[in-house]
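Quick one: examine the sequence and fold tokens given here and explain what the tokens say about the fold. Here goes:
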Amino acid sequence: MVTQITSGIKISVATRFEGTYYKDYTMLYAFSYEVTIENLCNDIVQLQARHWEILDSLNFTEMVDGEGVVGQTPIIIPGDKYIYSSGCMLHSTIGAMQGFYKMLNFTTSENFQVQIPTFKLNVPFAIN
């Protein structure tokens, strides 16, 4: 698990290899990840958008931008956390993801970014 704190928001990510799949005669490697977003500050915040960079060892990069996460824009009160799971497919056995969340501070009405720590995606049989 990797963890990072930005502006009082703690992001923790755990990953898991889910298996291989074929699509259009190409083998893909599926990964799931669980993200915990914990509000360590004194203000109520809302996750409004996300930006992901998904990289693999074949130099394929996919950018993903969108509103919220898994169809939600959660409001997180001080001391509370929001947990969600999602996934991605890679063309290679090794990759990584990084990005940020766009958040709104309800107390100050300011928008701010929270960094998502870079996390690795590895097929267990590819790593010694």
Summary: The CA atoms of residues 42 and 78 lie 5 Å apart.
